[in-house]
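Database export, one record per block. Field names are fixed; values are copied verbatim from the stored entry.
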Amino acid sequence: MPETDRPPVSLWTVVREWGRVGVIGFGGPPAHIALFRRLCVDERQWLTAQEFEDGIAATNLLPGPASTQLAIYSAWRLRGRLGAVVGGICFIVPGLTIILALSALFLSSHPPRWVLGIAAGAGAAVPAVAVSAAANLVPASWRRASSGRDGTLRWLAYLVAGGASAATVGSFLVLVLIVCGTIEVAVRTGGEGRPRRNLSAMFPATTLPVVTGGIASLCWVAFKVGALSYGGGFVIIPLMQHDAVVTYHWMTGAQFLNAVALGQVTPGPVVQTVAVVGYAASGLWGGLLAAAIAFAPSFIFVIAGARHLDRVRTDPRIQAFFVGAGAAVIGAIAGSAIPLGLELTHLWQVGVLATAAVWLLALRRGVVPALLGAGAIGLVAVLAGAPV
């Protein structure tokens, strides 16, 4: 129905419904999108199917967690800027509360042995989750690639470049994504003219200096997570891992695996992994600060630019950029499995990883059951005397 003919949606309704999705939203972006489609299109008819699909396409253009931005965008369509802020917060807070509570348990100075077993088991499955996430993105990206042999070869080259960079130079991954997107723009436009906007401006943090020391370093890492996670939260994992484990030594590699697992099994976006990193760096307030900074760009991008997203989405240069960068993102997500897998320290964890790979890639089953099952295997293994 026309927007002016829609019955008004109360702010309390946004609080209740967006909060409900935040509580039951296990399973990552596909689950979140399905829940919001059922709520906004099928059950309440607040948005038409076309409006909702346009919202998905528009928010996928933005860096940051796409499902969170869709939650913000949908609330903006119903209640304006205030609704966008309230809806986004209500969607984020349930998962954030759970992940911070679990962080206190898993990152305590002397966690019980059974906790270590669950963490080691769930963490062992994370590399398989990364490969599965990448595989799920391939069909849509492949359809967007240029037809013909040259287009196929470029798509494959971007895929390999993203994978290689995630596996070797994770801290420079975003620069590789920008280069791949820019090459595709140049090829499709024949080098004629300049894009209407500097495409690298969509990744503003790549132009800023590295920050070291104190709370400023945590703010810097959280900002990069929120501003650079184009293509889904997993693409930022190699960069976050390098910062948290190698650069600032806030966590061990095994603890980072646990952080990624917690980001997957709790409701909400995987970007909430940054809250675990913040907790490891500075306790509860560090976790809250990291989450606030990481999600802030999503609110800013959507609220400030929502009216212009449809026009940007139809720009052929922007579309070309995302064909190149999108293929590199898929490669980067798959490539992140290599440094994550290298953090496994016990042979029994390799067995858990193999089992998770069969579950996710061969049987095509869900991520949350895979991680819960891996955690249960870890618990049994440790109780049976396996090292941890």
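Remark 1: The longest helix spans residues 66-106.
Remark 2: Confidence is low (pLDDT under 50) at residues 193-203, 205-209.
End of record.
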